[in-house]
Structure formats: C-alpha cells, structure tokens
C-alpha cells in the first residue's frame, strides 16, 4: 500500500520506519532543512536519533507531492498542526482525498475539540477518517519491538480493511468503532501521566501510583461517556493500555514533565528542556473545560491544571487530593 505520513517528529518517523518494512511510504516534514538532513544522514537526529531510516523510505518537504503519493494519509503532527494539515490535504486532493488517519493525542487548544471534531470542520462529510492510537513509544515501534494499537474510523468496513492492511506481527492493529472513546483515552492519559510523574517525583510510592492510575481511569471513562464514548473502550488499548504505558514508562515526555515539576522546576523551563511536544500540558486545560461544561468531576485533571496554570505547588495539589472527602468507588456521595 502507498502511505503518506505528515509530520516527521518522533512518532511520524517511527511509524514511517515501521510501515516502510511492508509498504511504500513517503514522509513529509514542514521543515525542508530537516528533510535534507534526514536524506543526507538517513537518520532523524533531531527527533528519533536511535532509528536508521530504511533505504526505501521517500522523504519530501513538498506537501502536494506527499498528498498525491498516498492511498492513505497519516497525520502525525501534534494536535496543534492537525487542523491546518487536514485543510491543506482537502485543498490539495479535493475529490480524490484518500482515507485519513491521525495519530495525534489531545483536545485542540482554544476550541477544545477532539481530533474527529476538528476533522468534521475541515474535511468533507463523506471523508473516511479516524484515529490511530494506543500504547506505543516511538523508539520501541521503530526498533521493531511488539506493540498493539487501535484504529478507530467513522466507517466500520474501512476500519477493518485498513486494520488488516496495516497490521504486522510487531505493529498489531486492532479495529475499533468507538472514535470518541479512543480519542478521549489517548488525550487524557497524557494529563494523568503528568500527575503520575509528579507523584513519583514526590516519592509517593507504588500504592499511590496504582491509586492514581485507577482513579485517573475512572475520570477518563466518565468524560468519554459524557462525550458519547463507550466505557469498554477505556478498558482497551487506547484507555487502560496507554494509561499504564505513559504513567509508568520512563520514555514518556508527559511523565517527565511531571517528574521535573516535582523537582521544583518551572513549567517554561521544563518545556524548553524537553525538545519534544508534551500534549498533556495544553490538553489538561481543554479537558477540564469540557468536563466542567458537561458536569463531569475530574479532580486529578483539576489538580494538574492548578499546578500548570495557577502556580499551585506539586505538594499543594497532592494535599488537596488527599484531603478530599471519602466517596463511593463509583463516584457517588456516601450520603
Ligand atoms: N512519540 C511517541 O511515542 C508518540 C506520539 N504520539 C502523538 O503523536 C503526535 C506527534 O508527536 P511526536 O512526533 O512525538 O512529537 P515531536 O515533538 O517528536 O515532533 C513534533 C513534530 O511535529 C512537527 N510540528 C509541530 N507543530 C506542527 C504544526 N503546527 N504543523 C506541522 N507540523 C508540526 C514538528 O516539526 P518542526 O520540527 O518543524 O517544529 C515535529 O516534526 C503527538 O500528538 C503525540 O501525542 C502518539 C503516539 C506515540
Ligand atoms: O503517547 C505516547 C505513547 O503511547 C507517548 O507518550 P508521551 O507523549 O508522553 O511521550
């Protein structure tokens, strides 16, 4: 299959390396100098230095050429770049728009929209499109280590066809019909990973981390259901799976943000030192706004927002969470 990947950060590069083992892949980046460097060294030293780029991987900074090259477009920019990339794809391809998958995780800053809601504003109503999301650190996927991710589409038959076409022994693709659940799981686990990094940075212990993941999953699930997703999805790859990976794996950038905040570093300093996107930061604010509009209680997310945007210290946020009144495990009041 001919695939075009838009975005040559860590994840776009890893997917390109993995998918080029089976497919004809073109990787596009907006930065022509980056593409030149990749072509010269066959390595993305800026975003994924560990991986060698296979000889059959085509590289380009020409958006239209990449758009026309693919029978499937994969948008792997951060969510901040999703809207512009979809708009450009539609402009360039018109009626010939191929199926589009996005791999970004988050709510769009400013609008608070999930990726499929952004797509509904930028692509024609009959576009076949959806999300690729799940527990998948770029370095491990590029190295060919086994991973499993979900593919959720607005068209069930196409989801199954594309899952079959993209599936490999090491990059296992599971079709899913719950686009809302898959997107909410992928977005909000990054907020929880910041919280988990803080808890571990404050040496709260293993019990605390397990409690945080479990109560975090309850928050994510409440929000997903209020937005029309299904609870079962959040027990799957793009819910529990990605939550475990990102909250416990030291390769996570969002978890690293939390750990550095717990050391007393400022958010600006932490983000400047990261060298990569940390989607949980802008998404925390949007998650909380959407939750509040829907009357969904998300105390961990609120704590992360207080720390990121209201100068609350990690210890103050931890204390506030621990001082909450007891509740039933399903979130109801004890009465
Ligand atoms: N890394 C991972 O393991 C995984 C990441 N993801 C998700 O994939 C998305 C991308 O992450 P990742 O590749 O890791 O991020 P990185 O920080 O490694 O790279 C970001 C890339 O996106 C480009 N970019 C940034 N803003 C825009 C924009 N507005 N328009 C077009 N391109 C842009 C950057 O280009 P430039 O250099 O020009 O700024 C760079 O190539 C995120 O939503 C992330 O949550 C999902 C699964 C795994
Ligand atoms: O989404 C990811 C793994 O599934 C990557 O997480 P980070 O963005 O926190 O590194």
UniProtKB/TrEMBL annotation:
UniProt binding sites for NAD(+): 7-12, 138, 253
Metabolic or biological pathway, per its Swiss-Prot or TrEMBL entry: Membrane lipid metabolism; glycerophospholipid metabolism
Transmembrane portions of the chain: none
One cellular-component annotation, GO: cytosol
One Pfam family recorded for the sequence: NAD_Gly3P_dh_C
Main location: cytoplasm
Subcellular location(s) per record: Cytoplasm
Chain ranges of the Glycerol-3-phosphate dehydrogenase NAD-dependent N-terminal domain: 3-155
Catalytic activity reported: sn-glycerol 3-phosphate + NAD(+) = dihydroxyacetone phosphate + NADH + H(+); sn-glycerol 3-phosphate + NADP(+) = dihydroxyacetone phosphate + NADPH + H(+)
GO BP term (any one): glycerol-3-phosphate biosynthetic process
Keywords linked to the UniProt accession: Cytoplasm, Lipid biosynthesis, Lipid metabolism, NAD, NADP, Nucleotide-binding, Oxidoreductase, Phospholipid biosynthesis, Phospholipid metabolism
UniProt GO molecular function: glycerol-3-phosphate dehydrogenase (NAD+) activity; glycerol-3-phosphate dehydrogenase (NADP+) activity; NAD binding
Binding annotation for sn-glycerol 3-phosphate: 105, 134, 136, 189, 242, 252-254
SUPFAM superfamilies: 6-phosphogluconate dehydrogenase C-terminal domain-like, NAD(P)-binding Rossmann-fold domains
Positions of NADPH binding: 11, 30, 47, 105, 138, 253, 277, 279
UniProt keyword annotation of NADP present: yes
Amino acids binding substrate: 105, 253-254
KW Lipid biosynthesis (keyword) present: yes
Active site: 189 (proton acceptor)
Job of this protein: Catalyzes the reduction of the glycolytic intermediate dihydroxyacetone phosphate (DHAP) to sn-glycerol 3-phosphate (G3P), the key precursor for phospholipid synthesis.
Family statement: Belongs to the NAD-dependent glycerol-3-phosphate dehydrogenase family.
Protein name: Glycerol-3-phosphate dehydrogenase [NAD(P)+]
Species of provenance: Rivihabitans pingtungensis
């Amino acid at each position: 299959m001919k695939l075009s990947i838009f975005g040559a950060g860590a994840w776009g590069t890893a997917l390109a390396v993995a998918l080029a083992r089976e497919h004809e892949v073109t990787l596009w980046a907006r930065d022509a100098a980056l593409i030149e460097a990749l072509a010269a060294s066959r390595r993305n030293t800026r975003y994924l230095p560990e991986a060698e780029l296979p000889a059959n991987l085509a590289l380009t900074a020409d958006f239209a050429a990449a758009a026309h090259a693919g029978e499937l477009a994969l948008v792997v920019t951060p969510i901040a770049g999703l809207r512009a990339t979809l708009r450009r794809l539609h402009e360039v391809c018109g009626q010939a728009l191929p199926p589009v998958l996005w791999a970004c995780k988050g709510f769009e800053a400013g609008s608070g929209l999930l990726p499929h809601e952004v797509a509904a504003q930028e692509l024609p109503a009959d576009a076949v499109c959806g999300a690729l999301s799940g527990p998948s650190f770029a370095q491990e996927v590029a190295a060919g280590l086994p991973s499993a991710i979900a593919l959720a589409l607005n068209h069930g038959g196409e989801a199954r066809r594309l899952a079959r076409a993209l599936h490999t022994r090491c990059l296992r693709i599971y079709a899913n019909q719950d686009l809302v659940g898959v997107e909410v799981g992928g977005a909000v686990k990054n907020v929880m990973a910041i919280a988990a990094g803080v808890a571990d940075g404050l040496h709260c212990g293993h019990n605390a981390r397990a409690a945080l993941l479990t109560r975090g999953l309850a928050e994510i699930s409440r929000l997903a259901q209020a937005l029309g997703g299904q609870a079962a999805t959040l027990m799957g790859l793009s819910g529990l799976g990605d939550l475990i990976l990102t909250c416990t794996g030291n390769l996570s950038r969002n978890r690293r943000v939390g750990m550095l905040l717990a050391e007393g570093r400022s958010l600006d300093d932490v983000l400047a030192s990261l060298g990569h996107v940390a989607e949980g930061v802008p998404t925390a604010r949007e998650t909380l706004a959407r939750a509040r509009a829907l009357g969904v209680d998300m105390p961990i997310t609120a704590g992360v927002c207080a720390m990121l945007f209201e100068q609350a210290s990690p210890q103050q946020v931890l204390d506030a969470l621990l001082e909450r009144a007891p509740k039933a495990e399903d979130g109801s009041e004890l009465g």
